[in-house]
Write a structure and sequence with these properties.
Strand order of the largest sheet: 2-3-1-4-5
Structural class: mainly alpha
Strand content: 5-15%
Number of domains: 3
Number of strands: 5
């Protein structure tokens, strides 16, 4: 066989190898692109499932109020178009199958024509919602991208919180509509509210791990007026007039539904932000695919030209190119592995540091700052106030007879009281104030741009709010306050000691009062009371 034939055979083999390599590369790159686009589609499906869960929760609540009242079925029938629209969106997104919707339609026909047992109606809707929530959680866990997976898990936890709120909504609306004894209804509602608070805390923790901005949205809802209205409505149940009251049931339904709507909007905002990240990943994958394909095609054309134009040197050229290509691929593979390991390790380290930082600076029970989180911020505020000659005040709050609460009602009641005290303080103080749990039943508020007189007014406002609040078990509790204003040359310790001495006088003077440091006799400086 002539040399020219040998060269042609080698050339054909080389070109064939390049074609195969190009095909394999295209297959791999298209696989990555499909994965990125699948993530985007999963967001569409999960958003549709989230909306469907929201509408089913609302339909369940209305049906639960209406099953025994024939003329009250109108609101439920009026809800059907919204639920049906959410079902169509879930079908279009491929998040649910047509066969899964057939039982719902059958249940509706049966309910509208013959009525159903209230518990059976609620049980059916709850089972359907639980199946959807399980699907949301499963899809979230199966998402390949770690950052996006955390965002979807946060949305799943948020939906769980809404479901516990839905149970609270159904419990109160049903009890009011049927005339359940108010004290028993109020007790059940408080128990369910505790479940809501626990799931809300888990939801907030998951949101913090996914996106601090989304965590801020969720926290704003949990401490905002909508949730406050729910807590007030629970407190008012025991005082509601006896007997069946459809108007009261509807008002209760609307109050809890408003909180659920706020959570839904916060979840939608978080999903929109995560969807933008998923779209960015898909765009990067598409751009990378195009660039790499163009590069490989250009290389393939160049290689073919070299094969056809360099007949005498083809064998050596192919051999050299083969060695260099293998070496280059080995280096690229090693580099990709190292870069991937470094990136993954770095991201894990960043996530761990952020999680530990949040845990280290926040009190897990009340979500207020702890000492470690409070002291550096308070020190910076004190330096700023002294540098610009601006007023700064500190308030110490100590719950009166807190040990008695734990002894008589249990530590769970004590923990609930601490959480509610923290919520009342947050609602009363300003956004720029610093708030921390100092230890046990003692809390501290640092108020910038505030003199001692204004701080005393704020403390008295807090004192009255605590005194008038219904804590459930015990119904009432009080607190004592010590207030001090920073002076030139103060450090945080001296400022705190003066406020603590004022708190001592408030305790010694009978508790449930506010004392200022400026009113202290000189002999009181340095005294310290074991608070209670």
């Amino acid at each position: 066989m002539r040399l020219k034939t040998h060269i042609r055979i080698v050339g054909l083999v080389a070109i064939g190898g390049l074609v195969i390599g190009l095909a394999l590369l295209l297959r791999a790159e298209l696989g990555l692109l499909r994965e990125a686009r699948e993530v985007v589609r999963s967001f569409e499906g999960l958003h549709a499932l989230s909306e469907l869960v929201h509408e089913l929760q609302r339909e369940r609540g209305l049906a639960g109020m209406s099953v025994d009242v024939a003329d009250a079925q109108g609101p439920v029938v009026g809800q059907y178009p919204r639920t049906d629209a959410a079902q169509r969106a879930a079908l279009d997104a491929g998040a649910i199958g047509e066969d899964e919707l057939a039982p719902l339609r059958m249940q509706r026909r049966h309910w509208s024509t013959s009525g159903s047992d209230p518990l059976a109606v609620r049980g059916y809707y709850t089972a359907a919602i639980d199946r959807l929530l399980g699907r949301v959680a499963e899809q979230a866990r199966d998402t390949g991208d770690a950052t996006l997976r955390k965002a979807l898990l946060a949305q799943s936890e948020l939906l769980r919180t809404k479901e516990t709120l839905g149970s609270l909504r159904a419990l109160g609306a049903r009890g009011l509509a049927q005339g359940e004894p108010r004290q028993a209804l109020a007790a059940r509602a408080r128990e369910q509210l505790a479940v809501v608070e626990a799931t809300a805390a888990r939801s907030l923790e998951t949101a913090h791990a996914a996106d601090p901005v989304q965590a801020g949205r969720v926290d704003a809802v949990l401490v905002g007026p909508a949730f406050g209205d729910v807590r007030e409505a629970v407190d008012a149940l025991g005082r509601a007039p006896a007997g069946a009251d459809l108007d009261a049931a509807q008002a209760w339904f609307d109050t809890v539904a408003a909180a659920m709507d706020h959570l839904q909007r916060a979840g939608d905002q978080g999903m929109a932000a995560a969807r933008e990240r998923a779209d960015a990943v898909a765009r990067e994958a598409t751009a990378g695919l195009i660039a790499r394909v163009l590069l490989v095609v250009a290389g393939w054309i160049g290689s073919c030209w070299i094969v056809l134009a360099s007949l005498r040197r083809l064998m050596l050229t192919v051999d050299r190119l083969g060695r260099e290509t293998r070496a280059l691929l080995a280096r690229l593979d090693a580099g990709d592995t190292d870069a991937g390991d470094l990136h993954g390790g770095f991201m894990h380290l960043v996530e761990r540091v952020e999680h530990l930082s949040t845990q280290a600076s926040t009190d897990p029970l009340t979500r207020a700052l702890n000492r470690r989180g409070f002291e550096p911020l308070a020190h910076a505020e004190l330096l700023r106030a002294q540098r610009h000659a601006r007023p700064l005040a500190i308030l110490l709050l100590d719950i009166d007879h807190f040990k008695r609460i734990n002894d008589e009602h249990g530590h769970a009641a004590g923990d609930t009281a601490l959480r509610e005290v923290a919520l009342l303080v947050r609602r009363t103080m300003r956004a720029e104030d610093l708030f921390a749990r100092w230890g046990g039943e003692e809390f501290v508020v640092l108020a910038p741009e505030t003199d001692e007189a204004a701080a005393a007014q704020l403390a008295d406002k807090l004192r009255r709010a605590l005194e008038q609040h219904d804590f459930g078990r015990p119904r009432r509790l009080t607190a004592s306050f010590g207030v001090a204003q920073a002076s030139t040359g103060d450090d945080l310790g001296r400022l705190f000691d003066r406020a603590d001495a004022a708190l001592y006088r408030a305790k010694a003077g009978g508790r449930n009062r506010v004392c200022r440091a400026s009113d202290a006799p000189a002999a009181a400086e340095g005294l310290r009371l074991v608070h209670g």
